[in-house]
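Researcher: Batch entry, complex prediction.
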Amino acid sequence: MNITFIGIGNVGGALAGNLVKAGHTVTIAARDANSDSVKNALAAHPGLRALAPAEAIAAADVVFLATPYAANADALRGLEAALAGKVLVDCTNPVGAGLTHGLGSQTSGAEEVQKLAPAARVVKAFTIYGYENFISSAYPGYGDLKPAMLIAGDDAAAKAAVSQLCADLGWRAVDAGALSASLHLEHMTLLWIKMGRVQGKGAGFVWAMLER
Ligand SMILES: NC(=O)c1ccc[n+]([C@@H]2O[C@H](COP(=O)([O-])OP(=O)(O)OC[C@H]3O[C@@H](n4cnc5c(N)ncnc54)[C@H](OP(=O)(O)O)[C@@H]3O)[C@@H](O)[C@H]2O)c1
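Model: Structure tokens for the complex:
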């Protein structure tokens, strides 16, 4: 697939690098081609390229949004038309003071992203764990059991495309439902941060899905 990243820091860089390794064509939508994050990503992941945002998005099947939540409106401004019909993967998390939900748990950040890009097909994904797990999703010793990546969105075809990308990166995609379910994923993120980063468990854990 042709994949474009808006935001290429911890999360964007890790996912972009592994998507290149998985054989995808990956482009950075660079507002500033000389920013540290763009230069670091290009140096770390041969095969990545950087283009101006509108040009990078025009060529994309799937666009990842991996900016600080507070920067989303700025990052998407002027790109609404370019994003029409595109799968837009919302990797961002609204985190408030004291590890609370940044929107007071009244709505999800993903639904706010949808308002910023009304004609995009938004899918929440790659949010519920620390970026270390996007550098490597490998958890040896569990046989065929894959780590779970919960996703949410309103467009079935968009979720199918993101599920394929999850599989390419070593995850089992688990469909949590409509985009409004993103609120629950964002609370899962808060739980992961609390356990992993505050309580000292570290970054090396994820969830798996068992079914019968
Ligand atoms: N860190 C984690 O473990 C983790 C895990 C899951 C989800 N998340 C979520 O993922 C998002 C990114 O986190 P991160 O840790 O990757 O952040 P980060 O390392 O700070 O990277 C942020 C990226 O966004 C770009 N950016 C900032 N403001 C922008 C704007 N106005 N327009 C366009 N691009 C802009 C930055 O570019 P410049 O270098 O040019 O400033 C940088 O490439 C956040 O919403 C976070 O909550 C984080």
